[in-house]
């Protein structure tokens, strides 16, 4: 049985780039799909080059991400100038060089991603495999492993399964047949007990108070939308947690959670994937004043607080989202 597409040209070109004296650093914006994909690329590079490291540019705080790093022994460390100087070549998975400011000073030779490309930011890596139709980069890397006849070990297989699960939201977001095939193939090698431990590590205990606050501050938008402004919080992961929670509420087709995080206004979009395209919505509403975009069912926008010119954040966001003034609570009941 042939599980995946043949990658003769791709694997040949990738193998030709890996020279024995090279020291590769795989740089990621750490989330489950990125960490799993980095592990897979590291496995491909192992025994072919002098050294392979993994570094992340973001602060990892989400409990499931921390559990994944712990249980699956993912050796990622924070990117620093000193660490970067110790390596000669750089690779990237689950991102593109324009996605984060800390990526800009690296000359990436390998880029493997599934996010849409941007015409203003072409990827110039010598080896670039970008497939926006795929639900996860973990699937793409699984195909590479299969074509290179590398059978993933238990920890790597578990990481890739979790990467596919999270980026497709258990196949509720966009996916293609290759994602399903990869998931099926990997589960034969994965440790599902470890998987459950990671899945059940969703919340920090100190985060529980934010549910109460979200319930108090939520505002319905029309008949199927929800908007919640959470004031100032410590991490955007709290918004992600809450936005994912509200997707489970019957009758809501989309929700938007926002807050100020370290002088940045962060807006998280979630949708059911049937009606509004959240990626298009984010770009249309906030693309002119910040970075904004994403997938049909999930998107994000980040705006420098200073760009609001002192305007009340909640009122500004609501007006942008709906075209209307922020109503009082009695006119926008919870």
Write the layout of secondary structure elements.
Blueprint: H1 8-17, E1 23-28, H2 32-45, E2 51-56, H3 63-71, E3 76-78, H4 81-85, E4 89-93, E5 108-113, E6 127-130, H5 137-147, H6 154-167, H7 177-187, H8 192-199, H9 208-217, E7 219-221, E8 225-232, H10 236-246, E9 254-261, E10 264-271, H11 278-286, E11 291-294, E12 298-304, H12 313-322
Parallel strand pairs: 1-2, 1-4, 2-3, 4-5, 5-6, 8-9
Antiparallel strand pairs: 7-8, 9-10, 10-12, 11-12
Helix pairs in contact: 2-5, 2-6, 3-8, 5-6, 5-7, 6-7
Keywords:
globular; alpha/beta; 6-stranded mixed sheet; 334 residues; inorganic pyrophosphatase (n-terminal core); Diaminopimelate Epimerase, Chain A, domain 1
| Whole-angstrom Rg | 20 Å
Structural class: alpha/beta
Low-confidence stretches: none
Strand content: 15-25%
Q: What is the CATH domain class of the largest domain?
A: Alpha Beta
What is the helix/strand order? HEHEHEHEEEHHHHHEEHEEHEEH
First and last CA, distance: 53 Å
So what's the overall shape? globular
Mean pLDDT: 91
Largest sheet: 6 strands, parallel
The number of domains: 2
Neighbour order of strands in the largest sheet: 3-2-1-4-5-6
Number of strand segments: 12
According to CATH, the fold-level topology of the largest domain is inorganic pyrophosphatase (n-terminal core)
Count of discrete alpha- or pi-helical segments spanning 4 or more residues: 12
CATH superfamily of the largest domain: inorganic pyrophosphatase (n-terminal core)
Residue share in helices? 25-40%
CATH architecture group name of the largest domain: Alpha-Beta Complex
Quaternary structure classification: single chain
